[in-house]
């Protein structure tokens, strides 16, 4: 399987968002969450790059991020950073479903 470049870019974007939150607002929780989620997504991109790919970690992490940031986006109405991460996470979810569909553990499938 080819290297999951988009997965690594997504992971780096999430981590960079946490660093930017710390630099701009001094938010240590933003730094911690951004680096933690970025690292988990990076491991997920590594798993997607294996043969056969294992997309469940990146899929689950993207689902959690989409939910958390979607909730924050709906409360604040601000596109940055919550809206951007929500949109990127939803795009990552859709990509995982289309690209790695046959590797996802779907109940009832053999």
UniProtKB/TrEMBL annotation:
InterPro entries: TMEM14, TMEM14_sf
Residues spanning the membrane: 6-23, 30-49, 80-100
A family per Pfam: Tmemb_14
Main subcellular localisation: membrane
Keywords carried by this UniProt record: Membrane, Transmembrane, Transmembrane helix
Coiled coil segments of this chain: none
Subcellular location: Membrane
Gene3D superfamilies the UniProt entry points to: Transmembrane protein 14-like (1.10.10.1740)
Single biological process term from Gene Ontology: regulation of heme biosynthetic process
Protein family membership: Belongs to the TMEM14 family.
Name of the molecule in the record: Transmembrane protein 14C
Lineage: Eukaryota, Metazoa, Ecdysozoa, Arthropoda, Hexapoda
């Amino acid at each position: 399987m080819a290297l999951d470049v988009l997965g690594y870019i997504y992971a780096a974007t999430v981590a960079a968002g946490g660093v930017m939150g710390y630099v701009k607002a001094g938010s240590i929780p933003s730094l911690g969450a951004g680096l933690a989620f970025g690292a988990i997504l990076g491991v997920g991109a590594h798993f997607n790059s294996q043969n056969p790919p294992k997309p469940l970690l990146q899929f689950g992490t993207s689902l959690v991020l989409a939910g958390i940031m979607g909730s924050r986006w709906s409360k604040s109405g601000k596109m940055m950073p919550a809206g951007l991460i929500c949109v990127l996470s939803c795009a990552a979810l859709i990509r995982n479903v289309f690209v790695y569909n046959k590797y996802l553990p779907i109940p009832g499938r053999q």
